[in-house]
Amino acid sequence: MDLRLTPVILAAGHGKRMKSNLPKVLHPLAGLPIIHHVLRAVRAVATEPPVVVIGHGADRVRQAIGEGVRFAYQAEQLGTAHALQMAEPLLAGQTDLILVVTGDMPLLTPTTFRRLIALQAANPGPLSLVTLISDNSYGFGRILRSPDGNVQGIVEEAQATPEQLAIRELNASVYCFDAHWIWEALRRVPLSPKGEYYLTDVVGLAVQEGQAVQTLVLEDPQEALGINTRVHLAEAEAIMRRRITTTWMENGITIIDPNSTYIEMDVQIGRDTVIYPFTCLRGATRIGQNCRIGPFTLLQDVITGADCHLVGCALQDTYLESGTSILPTGGATLTWLSGNTSTPLATPPPEDLSPHYE
């Protein structure tokens, strides 16, 4: 029998360290709000609509996400275990597995989620979780193991002893739970010294019951980067920019200098196009085949035909016919996009090469 899998995204936190009026999960990353990256990744593996737990800035988060998800509201931010409890009225008896991830981890991939789900599907115990091996603790909890290697629990960094702080295996805060076990277990989570209920404590509860807890160690620890500050946001942007440019180069696009090229998630580029340094492609830009774009070029929601040559220009909401050249010495031929549906739009590339980062 196929298992029903429902993702739950925890996105109720304030994100105070961002020092922003904008909810943390709505800060843009590669052209999309942070939480949209998380949603795209979990939707690739889910059998049921995701549940997003919202709290701080709930109305703005709800509006930014739109349709296709269910929302649970956490009025008081009393910890991650309490946040997951808010989803119980929606999910109790309605799913077999629950994939839990925070809304500020945009670099996790569908491949990682699939591996975690497969691990838990074969696990006789109630949960599996993602860990990473790193000398940089990121403030994450430490994985405690017995001498025979079995998981015994997770200790949060703030409560860890000096010996525990030296542990290099970290909790990435990504879990897959047996949905028939987790709700009762959440009611047994104790109140922490900080006055919150930690989801990490359910690991110890499973161990006390003599049940198996499985772990999936990340092959790429960068996937576990959570966005808590604008420094983290810049780190994630650099990683995502490299993923995007690498994907396009692997699919027939020449990028002269990936380090000086910025391409957002939903851009499309036709085969044999060459992107020169200091080029920025944003929004729903669609580039035809065999074009030369840049250097020093910004395109926002621009559609081009094939064989276009654009240098040193900034264009927005523009349609360019095939063979158009915009050069510093002139020679531009362009048509502004409008609501006129008779405008002959450029044919997009025949393959959807949008990076999905499997």
Tell me the number of structural domains: 2
CATH class of the largest domain: Alpha Beta
Q: Give the name of the CATH superfamily of the largest domain.
A: Spore Coat Polysaccharide Biosynthesis Protein SpsA, Chain A
Strand order of the largest sheet: 5-4-1-6-10-7-11
Q: What do the pLDDT scores average to?
A: 92
Q: Structural class from helices and strands?
A: alpha/beta
Tell me what the structure shows:
The chain is of the alpha/beta class and 358 residues long. The protein has 2 domains: 5-224, Spore Coat Polysaccharide Biosynthesis Protein SpsA, Chain A, CATH 3.90.550; 230-336, Hexapeptide repeat proteins (UDP N-Acetylglucosamine Acyltransferase, domain 1). It is 22% helix and 25% strand. The chain has 9 helices and 25 strands. A 7-stranded mixed sheet has the order 5-4-1-6-10-7-11. A 5-stranded parallel sheet has the order 12-15-18-21-24, covered by helices on one side. A 4-stranded parallel sheet has the order 13-16-19-22. The longest helix is centred in the C-terminal third of the chain and has 20 residues, at 230-249. It is elongated. The two termini are 25 Å apart. The model is unreliable at 331-354 (pLDDT under 50).
